[in-house]
Amino acid sequence: MTPVELSRTVLRAVRRAVDEGELSVTVPGRAVVTVPGAGGCGDYATNIALQLARPAGQPPLRVAEILRSRLAGADGVTDVVVTGPGFLNISLRSESSADLVGEILRRGRRYGYADGPTGQIVQLHAPHELRAVVVMGVVARLLRSQGALVRTSCEARPEPAWTDVLGADVDAYGTPGAPAPLDVNVRPVPAPPDDPDPTRLGRDATRWALLHPAAHDRPRLSDDHLVQRESNPLFRVRYAHARTRALSRNAADLHFDAEPGDVSDGLVTPLADHPRVLARAAAHRSPDLLARHLVTVADAVLPLLPTVLPRGEEKPSAAHRARLALAEAAGTVLAGGLSLLGIDAPRHL
């Protein structure tokens, strides 16, 4: 269940409570669903009870309990816990690996995206600094993936190399004066200020070097990001993606296709977590969460790869088809995540 689908489930619970006379409110147009905050639990949380308490003329905890009883029986929901002043924390039923893989392959690179606009409008404004502009661009992509309408601006025109080499574009630049100056709201620790050519690593490695560290960590624009070794997380992510695509080509040569099936593998969990990671990365404006998640997916898929194709005289079986589908799903998640980071996902490496 995606955040958008869960939001609709929450609204149906509100509508039922209204229809049954337990709440006297106007059903809102949407319910905000986010990752649980401090003290929360489960997969997602919503503050809908706090939002409806005043118009309903009831305490938030009472509204939360009314909604909890209706949400607890909804399809796909396994548990609902009320925390704090009235937050609803919702746990979801785990999908079978076949259903999960089928959903990923069906939605492609848009797996984890919102189904449509949410009505959220966000203005992002960054200082005239390389890392800030790159991070802001990815934050904008993440927010758009979750249905927000986003506009980006910078205090001054980005340097030509930032745009030409790194693809770091903004919608507008300059700082408007009174009465409505924009607040700088994207301000990661800057790239090394004494670097004579911060774009020398090329688009992909430079963007990774700026995006993989957390915002409060200083990035390192070193040649380590170019080495083709397991010690380089960017290499592992791109290599894992290229290997999944090679498996699909090899399977075609052996005349068998992927077919989702139930597979017990550690890769299933990070693939199922992908929508939540996108939602968290957008909500916290932290592209590093997505970058580190892609490393987790890559490290989980690499041990699976040797088991996908038949060996020797072995004939392709349902297990081979299911493992191939799982590997292709991982490749899809890696490609989609790299695309959001503005990094190429090569099919050959």
Automatic annotation (TrEMBL):
One of its GO terms (molecular function) is arginine-tRNA ligase activity. Transmembrane segments: none annotated. Its EC number is 6.1.1.19. InterPro entries: Arg-tRNA-ligase, Arg-tRNA-synth_N, Arg-tRNA-synth_N_sf, DALR_anticod-bd, tRNAsynth_Ia_anticodon-bd. It catalyses: tRNA(Arg) + L-arginine + ATP = L-arginyl-tRNA(Arg) + AMP + diphosphate. This is arginine--tRNA ligase. Residues 179-200 are annotated as: Disordered. Residues 4-92 form the Arginyl tRNA synthetase N-terminal domain. Residues 237-349 form the DALR anticodon binding domain. It comes from Streptomyces resistomycificus.
